[in-house]
């Protein structure tokens, strides 16, 4: 079992029908709190009244229900990179208010998990989004991370349509020229071959998460994709995605921020994002390997840097 020894801080917001399931919501609040997961909302107060199906907790009796709901939704902005929404929906029932909260959470890219698969409206839920609260708490404690999405083979088109709705106007990705300084004349760098780039080689990297620093994102990506501990070195370049690369996405500002990354080990453990890897000098890689265009751009800058040439 994978174990992440770095202490992470996890936060969540609980959603569900207060009229039907508030007792269960309070139980799950206790389960998550005991597991070290900070529950930002709801507060553990009693329901004092209902107005047109809307539940008011202690202290909210004289408030506008729209204000109460908006203040609840503002907790989503405080979740951070390890935050998530958990929907308490026994028998698949989410309810009207929680359905509205689900839509807002998905639009602003909050990770959404469920106690059961939703049944009362046609929301898309990927394969790894349904968790019993006890199992989710144990997973987060032992793995030190949230469950990663899993997409059923026959739902890939649906997942792509869903992702297209979630993608913001700008996407920042961080990548690293991972170098190992051995006794050889030239430093070797790590390249990975992936299906994403049509079987071409690329550098390791990925999207920066909400509220995540660039260097933290790159260290995380290197660890997740290769199992290597890394130290961030010099900044190489920042550039927009190359339009003629064959992978350009119109309507999205896709920014790459690439650095040199130093490692002391060459013992790579690939995750499922890559199918193969190779260590070799950058100069030889540029000459002999099929390399995707964005990586080719960064590799050329790296070879210029490493040989002392002036670059723009």
Write a concise synopsis of the structure shown.
The protein folds into 2 domains: 152 residues, Rossmann fold (3-Layer(aba) Sandwich), CATH 3.40.50; 139 residues, Nucleoside Triphosphate Pyrophosphohydrolase (Alpha-Beta Complex), CATH 3.90.79.
As an assembly, this protein is: single chain
Structural class: alpha/beta
Shape: elongated
How would you sum up the major sheet? 7 strands, mixed
CATH class of the largest domain: Alpha Beta
CATH architecture label name of the largest domain: 3-Layer(aba) Sandwich
Give the mean pLDDT: 87
Distance between the termini: 45 Å
> How many structural domains can be distinguished in the coordinates?
2
Approximately how much beta-strand content do the residues carry? Answer: 25-35%
CATH topology of the largest domain: Rossmann fold
**Number of E strands:** 13
One letter per element, helices H and strands E, the order comes to: EHEEEHEHEHHEEEEHEEEHH
Radius of gyration: 23 Å
The low-confidence parts are 1-6
């Amino acid at each position: 079992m994978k174990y992440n020894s770095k202490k992470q801080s996890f936060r969540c917001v609980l959603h569900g029908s207060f009229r039907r399931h508030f007792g269960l919501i309070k139980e799950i609040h206790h389960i998550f709190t005991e597991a070290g997961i900070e529950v930002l909302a709801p507060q553990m107060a009693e329901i004092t009244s209902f107005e047109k199906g809307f539940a008011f907790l202690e202290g909210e009796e004289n408030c506008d229900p729209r204000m109460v709901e908006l203040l609840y939704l503002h907790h989503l902005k405080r979740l951070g990179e390890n935050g998530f929404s958990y929907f308490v929906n026994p028998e698949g029932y989410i309810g009207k208010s929680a359905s509205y909260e689900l839509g807002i959470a998905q639009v602003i890219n909050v990770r959404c998990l469920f106690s059961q698969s939703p049944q009362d409206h046609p929301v898309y839920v990927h394969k790894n989004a349904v968790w019993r609260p006890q199992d989710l708490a144990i997973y987060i404690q032992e793995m030190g991370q949230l469950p990663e999405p899993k997409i059923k083979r026959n739902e890939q088109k649906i997942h792509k349509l869903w992702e297209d709705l979630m993608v913001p106007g700008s996407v920042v990705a961080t990548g690293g020229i991972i170098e190992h300084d051995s006794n050889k004349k030239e430093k070797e760098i790590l390249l990975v071959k992936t299906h994403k780039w049509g079987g071409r080689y690329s550098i390791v990297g990925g999207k920066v998460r909400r509220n995540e620093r660039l260097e933290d994102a790159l260290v995380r990506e290197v660890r997740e994709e290769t199992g290597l501990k890394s130290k961030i070195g010099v900044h190489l370049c920042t550039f927009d995605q190359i339009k003629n690369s064959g992978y350009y996405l119109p309507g999205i500002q896709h920014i790459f921020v690439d650095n040199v990354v130093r490692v002391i080990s060459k013992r790579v453990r690939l995750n499922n994002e890559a199918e193969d890897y190779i260590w070799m000098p950058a100069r030889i890689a540029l000459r002999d390997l099929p390399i995707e265009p964005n990586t080719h751009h960064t590799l050329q800058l790296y070879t210029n840097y490493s040989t002392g040439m002036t670059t723009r």
